[in-house]
Design a protein that fits this description.
By secondary structure, this protein is an alpha/beta fold. The protein is 41% helix and 17% strand. The strands form three sheets. An eight-stranded parallel beta barrel has the order 1-2-3-4-5-8-9-12, surrounded by four helices. A two-stranded antiparallel ribbon has the order 6-7. Helix 2 packs parallel to helix 3 and helix 5 runs parallel beside helix 6.
Length: 252
């Protein structure tokens, strides 16, 4: 461990955490996040606003949008429109947050890998990069094959990267550091979500994940963004503040 800290412009908030405040006051929520110290955000849900409007809210707050979550169905339902929206937002990554339940088999993951190859090419042509966001079940092993690894192995690195959700990697029984080391450069964004001793979600720094050890290997993983996420905060603002302070003060 050294005295390295996360770059200030690498600390962001994945806006799923803030869905209740956003539903009430989207621009005000972004301004308050910026006041806490966040510099970037990942968009998750529009709350009735257009991509143009959300970009204006973010610009006004002094925040940079780095990505948007876009459902798997959009791969075949106006993918070009989804890409155009992410460009409007100013993002660099378009993220598929999960696969449909019926695809959670080796055959389904191979089908998704083929779809991601096509979608990743279209994203690249627009100057964007396609990412996949994992959950715990993505690390299930079927006939000795880890489902998640099918995507890593079958899609070219320049066509698919990953927004690695650290809570869900560990929940799925795997080690984030091992992935950084075995697949360098594939993980430009992280969901920094802590794991409470009872297995539930925790604010960053309040759980049992060894973030300094994980972040010490983040460079090999290609990490550029550390996005805070809490799926079920009791008070999203308390969670946002606690998690920001933990990341801003962390040495690794």
């Amino acid at each position: 461990m050294s005295d390295r800290t996360i770059p200030a412009d690498g600390i962001g908030m994945h806006l799923y955490t803030m869905r209740e405040p956003l539903a009430e006051d989207y621009p005000g929520t972004l301004k308050r996040l910026a006041e806490i110290g966040y510099r970037t955000v990942g968009v998750s849900g529009r709350f009735g606003h257009s991509a143009e409007k959300i970009r204006a809210f973010a610009d006004d707050a002094g925040l940079k949008i780095v990505l948007e979550h876009v459902g798997y169905n959009r791969l075949t339902d106006d993918w070009e429109g989804a890409l155009a929206d992410v460009r409007t937002l100013g993002g660099q990554w378009i993220v598929v947050p999960s696969l449909p339940t019926e695809l959670r088999t080796p055959e389904g993951f191979r089908e998704a890998a083929a779809a991601f190859t096509v979608a990743g090419r279209a994203a690249r042509e627009q100057g964007l990069k396609l990412l996949f966001h994992n959950h715990g079940h993505d690390f299930d092993e079927v006939d000795g094959q880890v489902l998640f690894d099918i995507l890593l192995d079958e899609v070219e690195p320049d066509l698919l990267g990953f927004e690695l959700d650290l809570y869900w990697v560990v929940n799925g029984g795997k080690d984030p550091i091992a992935y950084f080391e075995s697949h360098p450069g594939r993980f430009p964004a992280l969901h920094v979500k802590d794991l409470a001793t009872d297995g539930s979600f925790a604010d960053v720094g309040a759980g049992r994940l060894d973030f300094p050890a994980i972040f010490a290997q983040a460079e090999s993983g290609g990490v550029q963004q550390w996005l805070v996420e809490h799926d079920a905060p009791t008070d999203p603002w308390d969670s946002a503040l606690t998690s920001y302070r933990s990341l801003a003060e962390m040495r690794y």
